[in-house]
Amino acid sequence: MNTSTDRIERHIHIKAPRSKVWGALADAESFGEWFGVALKGKRFVAGEPCAGNITYPGYEHLVWNVVVVRVEPERLLSFRWHPYAVDPNVDYSQEATTLVTFELEETADGTLLRLVESGFDQIPLHRRAEAFRMNSGGWDMQMKNIDAYVATR
């Protein structure tokens, strides 16, 4: 496994208590607000799927589908999904998924949020590089989105 192509890692320091960051992350409706997916009335439960329409302009025709893997209150949330699965005419269900893990760590003046998405080396070669590139840029944006969301709540 080549870690430079198999995983995306990001981290951000958010100047808010861990409980507040956890609420933005683990409450599905709040997650959807900053992430750009309609999750009204949804919950993140380990072992269960969660889905909602994407609300990001130009992608509203897509459904965001994940299977929640772990929920450890105020510490860790993880899910599996098909990265950059944006062609509505393609059945991605037979492809491997990547694992997205958010970890929270309390700091003296806030919370360190770490994000790792791993498993890209298992994605079919014909779409692996594009999925990695698009998700890499997407996570840069999403780290800013959660920071702004927590700052305004």
What's the layout of helices and strands?
Blueprint: H1 3-6, E1 7-14, H2 18-26, H3 28-35, E2 49-53, E3 63-72, E4 76-81, E5 98-107, E6 110-118, H4 125-151
Antiparallel strand pairs: 1-6, 2-3, 3-4, 4-5, 5-6
Brief synopsis:
With 153 residues, the protein is of the alpha+beta class.
Describe this structure in words.
Residues 15-150 form the Activator of Hsp90 ATPase homologue 1/2-like C-terminal domain. There is one protein chain. With 153 residues, the chain is α+β, with helices and mostly antiparallel strands. It has one domain: START domain (Alpha-D-Glucose-1,6-Bisphosphate, Chain A, domain 4, 2-Layer Sandwich). It is 31% helix and 31% strand. It has helices spanning 3-6, 18-26, 28-35, 125-151, and strands at residues 7-14, 49-53, 63-72, 76-81, 98-107, 110-118. Strands 1-6-5-4-3-2 form a six-stranded antiparallel β-sheet. The longest helix is centred in the C-terminal third of the chain and has 27 residues, at 125-151.
